Amino acid sequence: MPTGQIRKALSGFYYVYDKDQLIQCRGRGVFRNRGESPLVGDFVDYTVEGNNDGTITVIHERKNSLVRPPIANIDQAILVFSVKEPDFNTILLDRFLVVLESFHIEPIICLTKSDLLDEKMEETIKQYIKEYEQIGYQVFMTFKDDPQFDDKITPLLKGKTTVLAGQSGVGKSTLLNTILPTLNLKTGVISDALGRGKHTTRHVELIEVCGGLLADTPGFSSFEFDLMEKEALSSCFPEFVEIQDECKYRGCMHVNEPKCAVKVAIETGKIKDYRYKHYLQFFNEILERKPRY
């Protein structure tokens, strides 16, 4: 039985890539009965019926998967955030980072619209870049008509399945067009009233680019902590993980416990105060979440 990878899902069909061709497939009814659904990025077994039609029979085990957008087996995510229009938002960035960490997806932070910065704001952004790099994240700031941008970003795509994510209206489609000009994606227009862009992408698709696979994904503009338990949250803050063994209590939540190494690190400036405030906000969101049945 042939094996391939789902590269696109559209209108109830799954397009399976195998040996340089796409096979249009349907999912077996058994998946619906089990409450399962094939996802873009899945490796699957399929049977062929006719010239270019098939049925997906087996979904291979996934490395990871997201619900919104529905995509599986992701290696890394390029998080596209603008520094202006809309303004750079550390709490939203940290929300993205935490959820990606929980799925073991490596984040790469890409900041856009740097040409809109004044001198004071540019210094602030550079300080944020330094702080996120100290945590261990890769951060790039794109400049308008930057001839070196391709040289910086394209080597990161080779051999990886990459998701492009971020706020609406920050230039994701523009960035994709920079990486792969032949896409000619429709770029969104910022809505002044809402402060966010109009959705311009309608389906999930993996595109071969720079020796890897790249996805542009609709609805990837916010994250909730639906599946995360409070005990797992601190493991999604790398700078907490680095010193958590120094806490007095094993399994320290870094909230009310005495002799907490994380709180000491905040007082000394080793951990940034805004990161800890975000941690507490996310922690409370998880506590207040309605129970799942």
From TrEMBL:
<dbReference type="GO" id="GO:0003924">
    <property type="term" value="F:GTPase activity"/>
</dbReference>
<comment type="subunit">
    <text>Monomer. Associates with 30S ribosomal subunit, binds 16S rRNA.</text>
</comment>
<keyword id="KW-0699">rRNA-binding</keyword>
<comment type="function">
    <text>One of several proteins that assist in the late maturation steps of the functional core of the 30S ribosomal subunit. Helps release RbfA from mature subunits. May play a role in the assembly of ribosomal proteins into the subunit. Circularly permuted GTPase that catalyzes slow GTP hydrolysis, GTPase activity is stimulated by the 30S ribosomal subunit.</text>
</comment>
<keyword id="KW-0547">Nucleotide-binding</keyword>
<dbReference type="InterPro" id="IPR031944">
    <property type="entry name" value="RsgA_N"/>
</dbReference>
<protein>
    <recommendedName>
        <fullName>Small ribosomal subunit biogenesis GTPase RsgA</fullName>
        <ecNumber>3.6.1.-</ecNumber>
    </recommendedName>
</protein>
<feature type="domain" description="CP-type G">
    <location>
        <begin position="63"/>
        <end position="223"/>
    </location>
</feature>
<keyword id="KW-0690">Ribosome biogenesis</keyword>
<dbReference type="InterPro" id="IPR010914">
    <property type="entry name" value="RsgA_GTPase_dom"/>
</dbReference>
<dbReference type="Pfam" id="PF03193">
    <property type="entry name" value="RsgA_GTPase"/>
</dbReference>
<dbReference type="GO" id="GO:0005737">
    <property type="term" value="C:cytoplasm"/>
</dbReference>
<dbReference type="GO" id="GO:0046872">
    <property type="term" value="F:metal ion binding"/>
</dbReference>
<feature type="binding site">
    <location>
        <position position="260"/>
    </location>
    <ligand>
        <name>Zn(2+)</name>
    </ligand>
</feature>
<keyword id="KW-0963">Cytoplasm</keyword>
<dbReference type="InterPro" id="IPR012340">
    <property type="entry name" value="NA-bd_OB-fold"/>
</dbReference>
<feature type="binding site">
    <location>
        <begin position="112"/>
        <end position="115"/>
    </location>
    <ligand>
        <name>GTP</name>
    </ligand>
</feature>
<feature type="binding site">
    <location>
        <begin position="166"/>
        <end position="174"/>
    </location>
    <ligand>
        <name>GTP</name>
    </ligand>
</feature>
<keyword id="KW-0479">Metal-binding</keyword>
<dbReference type="GO" id="GO:0042274">
    <property type="term" value="P:ribosomal small subunit biogenesis"/>
</dbReference>
<feature type="binding site">
    <location>
        <position position="247"/>
    </location>
    <ligand>
        <name>Zn(2+)</name>
    </ligand>
</feature>
<dbReference type="InterPro" id="IPR030378">
    <property type="entry name" value="G_CP_dom"/>
</dbReference>
<keyword id="KW-0862">Zinc</keyword>
<keyword id="KW-0342">GTP-binding</keyword>
<dbReference type="InterPro" id="IPR004881">
    <property type="entry name" value="Ribosome_biogen_GTPase_RsgA"/>
</dbReference>
<feature type="domain" description="EngC GTPase">
    <location>
        <begin position="72"/>
        <end position="221"/>
    </location>
</feature>
<dbReference type="GO" id="GO:0019843">
    <property type="term" value="F:rRNA binding"/>
</dbReference>
<dbReference type="GO" id="GO:0005525">
    <property type="term" value="F:GTP binding"/>
</dbReference>
<comment type="similarity">
    <text>Belongs to the TRAFAC class YlqF/YawG GTPase family. RsgA subfamily.</text>
</comment>
<keyword id="KW-0378">Hydrolase</keyword>
<dbReference type="Pfam" id="PF16745">
    <property type="entry name" value="RsgA_N"/>
</dbReference>
<feature type="binding site">
    <location>
        <position position="252"/>
    </location>
    <ligand>
        <name>Zn(2+)</name>
    </ligand>
</feature>
<dbReference type="InterPro" id="IPR027417">
    <property type="entry name" value="P-loop_NTPase"/>
</dbReference>
<feature type="binding site">
    <location>
        <position position="254"/>
    </location>
    <ligand>
        <name>Zn(2+)</name>
    </ligand>
</feature>
<keyword id="KW-0694">RNA-binding</keyword>
